[in-house]
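Anyone else keep sequences and structure tokens together like this?

Example one:
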Amino acid sequence: MTPFMAMFSLVVALGANVAPGQLTWERDYRQARQLGERLQKPLAVFVGSGAEGWTRLAREGKLDSSVNKLLADGFVRVYIDVNTESGRKLADAFGLSSKCGLVISDRTGDLQAFWHNGDLTLSELNRLLNKYGSTSFVVRTTETYAPAAPLTDAYVQPASYQNYYQPACRT
């Protein structure tokens, strides 16, 4: 058997173990960058904890079929497990302090298109993957996502406050 046929058989055998709709994740960031550059696909770097921590990025607790399709078709998928020492270092290098987050690069891998610390809803994730996976999208600045802050009661002090309990000051 030629080396090419042996490699082909191995790829087919390993590919058969992946269920339809199940994504494969790169664990080595450097190799993923090289792959993204070769395929001209942006990197979607999911940061989480545990064996399937990428599912915790979605507030709903799992990725739906539309998100899986967007990830499979348009991105090189990277998973960083913060439970490992190398994963913690890489998450710190990205500036991600929580147990989950998302970083999306451009197609060259040189520019960061999107950065988010924390979880996202599936609709937000779907919108972001559609936007940054588009072949026509050009990165100019890094976008971050922060949900709107809740309103809080506040008291506004008037600029001139008259004290009615004491007589006016005479100089």
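And example two:
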Amino acid sequence: MPRKAGKGRTVAVLGLGKVDRRLKRLAPDLQARYAAQAMEAGMSLVLQAAKANAPVDTGELRDAIHMETHSDGSRVSVEVKVGEGDFLGDQYYAAMVEYGTYKMAAHPYMLPAYEDQGPRARALTLRILLAGLRRLANRG
């Protein structure tokens, strides 16, 4: 199921039939490991762009942008986020900067990073994942 990304935007990766079939032939722990490595490489492009786009006053907002990988054994997700999340922690204001408020205009930095780097991130993820699966197939 696709996950909501900010203001109700849904992000989903489609068209992975060939990769998905190859991954399902692997043990679940290998599936998660290969998927996580490939997704982290792809999302690092979005991470770099978000940091470059972030408005800088003290630098705390930019420095709090990071990547988190989650796996429940059968599903892996990688997300680029700020601090603890929207309206939480020391960078509670990150969402206000991204989306604006009634008193302050928006200064988007996360969504433009995803829109700009998303296609490259997806292509890199697929390339790394397929290369890893090919290496594994050639070993066995």
